[in-house]
Amino acid sequence: MAKSGLPQEENMVEQPQTSNIKLQNKIQITNLNVWYEKNHAVKDLTLDVQEHEILGVIGPSNSGKTSFLKTLNRLNELYPGTTTTGEVLLDGQSIFTAIDKHFLRKRVGVVFALPLPLPLSIFDNVAYGPRLHGVKSKEKLAEIVEASLQAAAIWDEVKDRLSTNAFKLSGGQQQRLCIARTLAVEPEVILYDEPCSGLDPISTLKIEEAMQQLKQKYTQVLVTNNVKQAARASDRTAFFLMGELIEIGETKQIFTVPKNKRTEDYITGRFG
Amino acid sequence: MNMNPQLKEKIAFGVLQLLTMFVILPVVLIFMLVLFRGLPGLSWEFLTQMPSSGMRAGGIFPAIVGTIYLTVGTALFSIPLGILAAIYLNEYAQRNWLTRLIELAIINLAGVPSIVYGLFGLGLFVTFLNFGASILAGSLTLAIMTLPVIITATREALGCVPRSFREVSFSLGATRWQTVRHVVLPNAIPGIITGAILGLSRAAGETAPILFTVAAFYLPRLPRSVYDQAMVLPYHIYVLSTQVPNVSVKVQYGTVLVLVGMVFIMNILASWLRAVFRKRKTW
């Protein structure tokens, strides 16, 4: 637990920096509604994600966090019966009409709750995305793979066995491999869907550290069931309940002086 | 009479096991019969010579070759079509009335009696399209019959590839075809191959569909083109056992043994491939 202070300190250093420059809205969400058949999962959500921030999203299960996240790169559409209304802008362009969904998913990457390597070697897992997008040269691929694994803080652990099957790695390593795989397509935004839910505290810490290092280049949205993780890792935090956004603000404010009673109840563990 | 549960359990177990044993019985009996009666007729000449003395002596070489041609022809038509249809149904198709109609058609296709396929092939391929009784017409007829098996096996194999693999691929910006091509198919291939071989081995032994579409009563040469008729093992067996008088048991059962052996080899190949791929599977 003593170590968990480390990313927080980095936060404190980062905070004044980011608040000095005028923050740009990377993603603007207006009146977003998501239904699965009759189930109204996200209700009238209006929210901005700022460039280079880590936005934590907390809330009990069924609060619409994951539905919200999967809307941002239109993965929701893979499930039949999903209806989405409202507008989501990425750099001012509608993700539903102005941007091709495949290109959108390249620009907005996602790391899933469970580590989901593909049944390929470590190298091929990371190279999968770049290959899809037309990178053929072996040297270029090797370069991307190394840079991505470095950025996801797993290079040193796997550099000698890049041709081993990814399923041979431990859960925590697999999850960092998945982050590397997401980074390899050079996204602008990274979405995390409870990325540490199956991991031990040390693996969790490593992933949180990786996230802090990725801040300079990427905008990150972290959906988490672990309230403490949001407190440690995010710059701003949003609290969702039953598909509605209850409160959003600077993480420090949310965790010290929440404006809404329900937010306070949730973060102090009175329910959820 | 009151029995205690343990005794009932013993009786139930015994009865069920005994009844299950009966499933093995016909297989064993068929193999023993064919093996004992057919083995004396088997020789290198039998496998490689043309028939002679009105098919009462000599070999069955043209029928073996005909069966191989026909099976390969069936594979050429049914495997690509079956796999592509299954990919469409499993990966692309929306759940709507059209999809349900196609699925219903496939189920019914599997239920059509084989003689009806034979007549259908006669009407469509032999007469209407004017292929004549030929390897082409026979292959196409058998292909249509095999299609539902291959489609069903392929769909099952595709369905066994975890959904999450697809989601990961999509999340990296892959199109549906890229996902199918690079993630789904490579992981479904073992199941597809196994299903295809089993379907083909079934087709190789069919008589009714080839009766009017390709089978030659007696053709002491090899077929020269796909428009040529051919002798085929299942029909040859029928001919030897009902149409030609005084054929020795040796020749009859030798022919049966060859056909059963060929089908058996295909089935073993399928099981072996399945085992090999399963061992290699990492997820």
Detail the topology: elements first, then pairings.
The complex is a heterodimer of chains A (272) and B (283).
Chain A: H1 5-20, E1 25-36, E2 39-50, E3 54-58, H2 65-72, E4 82-90, E5 93-94, H3 101-107, E6 108-111, H4 122-132, H5 138-151, H6 155-158, H7 171-183, E7 189-193, H8 201-214, E8 219-223, H9 227-233, E9 236-241, E10 244-250, H10 251-256, H11 261-267
Parallel strand pairs in A: 3-8, 3-9, 6-7, 7-8
Antiparallel strand pairs in A: 1-2, 1-4, 4-5, 9-10
Chain B: H1 5-38, H2 44-48, E1 51-52, E2 57-58, H3 61-92, H4 97-111, H5 114-128, H6 135-159, H7 163-171, H8 176-204, H9 208-211, H10 233-243, H11 249-280
Largest interface: A-B, 27 and 21 residues
Number of domains of chain A: 1
Helix content of chain B: over 70%
Secondary-structure arrangement, i.e. CATH architecture of chain B: Orthogonal Bundle
**What is the number of E strands of chain A?**
10
* Shape, principal axes of CA atoms of chain A: globular
Radius of gyration of chain B: 23 Å
Strand content of chain A: 15-25%
- Output the CATH topology of chain B: MetI-like fold
CATH homology group of chain A: P-loop containing nucleotide triphosphate hydrolases
Q: CATH first level of chain A: which class?
A: Alpha Beta
> What's the number of domains of chain B?
1
Find the CATH superfamily of chain B. Answer: MetI-like
Label the structural class of chain A: alpha/beta
Order of helices and strands of chain A: HEEEHEEHEHHHHEHEHEEHH
Query: How large is the radius of gyration of chain A?
Result: 18 Å
Number of distinct helices of chain B: 11
Biggest beta sheet attributes of chain A = 6 strands, mixed
